Amino acid sequence: MSNWKKQLVDGYYAFRDGEFIKQKALYEELGTDGQAPAVMLIGCADSRVDPTDIFNAYPGEMFVARNVANIVPPCEDDEAYHGTSAALEYAVTVLKVKVIVVMGHESCGGVGGCLAGMGDAPIENFVGSWVSLLNPARDKVVATVSDPDKRQHALELEGVRQSLQNLMTFPFVKAAIEAGDLSLQGAYFSITKAELHMADKNGEFHPV
Ligand SMILES: [Zn+2]
Predict the structure, then answer these.
(1) Ligand 1 centroid to residue 71 C-alpha, Å
(2) Mean pLDDT, the chain, as a whole number?
(3) Ligand 1 midpoint to CA 80 (Å)
(4) Residue 53 predicted with pLDDT over 90
(5) Is the pLDDT of residue 79 over 90?
């Protein structure tokens, strides 16, 4: 068996004989009755920032959508394929989650790519096109943070703020918030320190 396949299968056996056994009743209930998570989390696809690990979440607790650089695009009414927007719509209109958390993280490759100009013309690939969504946040950071070494961290935070603003462009999100049924929350995770930061109402991030 190839190394990656052995790693996957061994991991599955460890899960099946360990965590699954411990939570067998919960899995059976969730499999039969469906999910009702209170939290939607939009995070980065980065392998170092698994939201269910970071929040110690049980199966069924957290509806997670991960993409490059944890970006929420603006609501676009076209015929393109919007994976993150579809997950968002399902979470809000069907699952009726209580909060949407957008979580950025330390040393984000997508954020670094945006800073390096991947999202500027000529755009050559899907990642470049995707991270160009961060260009408005990038321009703001470049204009306000003079030290280039501090721009990565600043854009990791500013990208979360921009995604929170973009969430409000979705009519179903805006309606749920106005009805008092939904909240938005910005978060940031430092990998090296396992430190979680939460944004306050002014968009400033503080360790919890
Ligand atoms: Zn990332």
Answers:
(1) 9
(2) 97
(3) 24
(4) yes
(5) no
Percent of the chain surpassing pLDDT 90: 96
- What is 122-191 written as a DSSP string? SP-SHHHHHHGGGHHHHHHHHHH---GGGHHHHHHHHHHHHHHHHHTTSHHHHHHHHTTS-EEEEEEEET
Output the CA–CA distances (angstroms, integers) from residue 78 to 53, 66, 74, 168, in the order listed: 35, 22, 12, 18
Give the pairing of strands 195-199 and 183-190: antiparallel
What's the CA-to-centroid distance between 16 and ligand 1, angstroms? 29
**Strand pairing of 183-190 and 39-44?**
unpaired
Sequence-ordered list of residues with C-beta below 8 angstroms from that of 74, at least 6 positions apart, any chain: 133, 166, 169
Summarised one tens digit per residue, pLDDT across range 95-147 is 999 999 999 999 999 999 999 999 999 998 999 999 999 999 999 999 999 99
